[in-house]
Automatic annotation (TrEMBL):
Residues 23-296 form the CNH domain. InterPro entries: CNH_dom, Vam6/VPS39/TRAP1. Its main location: cytoplasm. This is TGFA1 protein. PANTHER family: CNH DOMAIN CONTAINING, TRANSFORMING GROWTH FACTOR-BETA RECEPTOR-ASSOCIATED PROTEIN 1. The keyword Cytoplasm applies. Keywords: Cytoplasm, Protein transport, Transport. GO terms for cellular component: cytoplasm; membrane. The keyword Transport applies. GO terms for biological process: autophagy; endosomal vesicle fusion; protein transport. It comes from Psophia crepitans (common trumpeter). It is found in: Cytoplasm.
Amino acid sequence: MSVKAFKLVSAVEREMLMGDKNYINIECIECCGKNLYIGTNDCFIYHFLLDEKISTAGKITFVATKQLHKYLGLKKPVSELKAASALTRLLVLCDNTITLVNMMNLEPVPTGARIKGAVTFALNENPVSGDPFCVEVCIISVKRRTIQMFLVFEDRVQIVKEVFTPEQPCAVAVDGYYLCLALTTQYIILNYSTGVSQDLFPYCSDEKRPIVKRIGRQEFLLAGPGGLGMFATVDGISQRAPVHWSENVIGAALCFPYVVALDDEFITVHSMLDQQQKQTLPFKEGHILQDCEGKVIVATNKGVYILVPLPLEKQIQDLLASHRVEEALVLAKGARRNIPKEKFQVMYKRILQQAGFIQFAQLQFLEAKELFR
C-alpha cells in the first residue's frame, strides 16, 4: 500500500550546467543552506544558489542561480565534495588529494593546506575534539588497509591517528570515536581510540557497492546481503528490523521517519517505524542519492533533483482517509520528534478521535472505545 511521502522536483537542469557539452557528467554534489555545489568529470566545481518557491496552490519549485564555476587544473574528475560551514570551507577530493577551498569564491586556501593519499573520506558529525572551529575527517588511505583521522582547520590540517584494518576498507562512516567500515568481505565497527573492533556481518564488496550511512547518534544503516537495509549500533546490535531493498541498491539516505534508497530504475521509500515500503518513484539513470541538512537530493549524470517531503499531517490524513488506521497511528507517534510538544498533543488527540470514528463505523467497538478514551 502506498503513501505519498515525497514529490520529486527538478533543481538544476542539464542546460544550466553543461549547455551543449554532452561530455560533461555530474560526479558528486553537496548542499549547505541555499548553496549547492556540483563536481564534474572534467575537474570543475559549480556553485549555485538554490531558492525554494511555493505557489499559492502549494506547489514547490526550485530556482537555481549559477554563482560561479572553477577549474581545479587537473584532468581528473572531482570525486567528492563536503561542506564545513563553520569554517566556510569546501573539502574537495580530486586525484586522491583533499583540497580546502573557500565556499564563496572556490579559491584554494592561501596556505595550500591539503590531505594527500585519500581514496574516500567522511566527516565526523558527532565530533570528539570539542573545538567548534575544526572538523574531524576520516580518510581511507591509499596505503593498504589504513584509515587516518585528521583535524581540519580553516587553513591547516593535522593528522591525529592512523589505524590499520584487518582487510582493505572501501567505505566508512564516523560517529564519535566509532568508525563503521565496509571491508572487502564484511562490515565492522572499530573504535579508533581503543583499537577494539566488532564484526557485524559478511558482505562481498566485489559483487556490490557497499553502503555505510550514519543515521543518528551511534547508529548506522548498511546494505546487507540479500537486498536488506540493515541497522546497526556501535555495540554491534540492531534495534530495528531491516528494510527490504532491491539487490542492486546504489545509495541510501535518511529523512525521518523514512529511509530512501536508489537503484538503477527506482527510488524507494521505507518507513523506519514499521519497515514497510511506502512509496516507489520511477527514476532512471540515477547514480547519486544523499541527504544534506534535511534535503534529500538525487542526481543523474546530467541533472539534479530534490525529493520534497509532504507534511506529515497531510500524510496521516491521507492514511485515515484510506481507513489505514494502524499505519496512521504509527506515523503520528513517530512524528512526535518533528513537531513541538503542545502542537503534537493537539494533533494527536484529533487523530485518535478520527481513528476512533473510523473503527466505530466499521463496528470495531472495543478498538473505537480505546481510541476515544
